Amino acid sequence: MSVAVYPGSFDPVTLGHHDIIERSASIMDKLIVGVLNNSAKTPLFSVEERVSMLKSVTRHIPNVEIQSFDGLLVDFVRKSGAKVIIRGLRAITDFEYELQLSQTNHVIAPEVDTIFLTTNLKYSYLSSSIVKEIAEYHGDISAFLHPEIAEKIQEKMALRESMK
Ligand code: ADP
Q: What number does the ligand 1 atom closest to the CA of 127 have?
């Protein structure tokens, strides 16, 4: 059985991530989306919220599982019984970092390979950070996110403003 892990912060999941999830799930028997619980970053959404949002928008894809992880990615990949890491490539700016990451992971875990899916042209400009920035200034984010996620980000921004 082919098992892959698609890791990321997913803070929050965008239509660009969603596209990579759908496409990789269609070529693998099982896809585990690994949500990174990184204590060095301060995400807008907690890891539990990010997991729950991903579960909600991928509920129609039967071979997708959502899990959180911390620590080394290759340890999570090994524990999951996967041999493949999926990453999305948007632009040349992603390339250098992704190349370094995949080569390092391959040295630490030679049995694990990284497969890159190039972005759908529709979403090549899209990142979670840009979406958060637009939402912060009350811009229209409906073209970038699943409607459920757009609602959640607006709720989160309203909560933050009420606490200022
Ligand atoms: P990270 O913090 O690891 O960069 P992200 O949640 O930003 O996590 O992204 C996870 C993965 O999804 C990365 O491989 C990233 O390149 C990819 N990705 C993010 N946005 C897009 C997009 N619009 N199209 C294709 N891939 C994307």
A: 20
Q: Cα separation of 75 and 80, whole Å?
A: 9
123 lines ligand 1 (CB under 6 A): yes
CA distance 78 to 115: 16
Q: What is the pLDDT of residue 142?
A: 95
Contact 89, 124 (CB under 8 A): no
Residue nearest to atom 3 of ligand 1 (CA): 8
Rounded distance between C-alpha atoms, residue 53 and residue 85, angstroms? 21
| Global pTM exceeds 0.90 | yes
* Phi, psi dihedral angles at 69 (to 5 degrees): -150, 155
The answer to whether 47 touches 11, Cβ cutoff 8 Å, is no
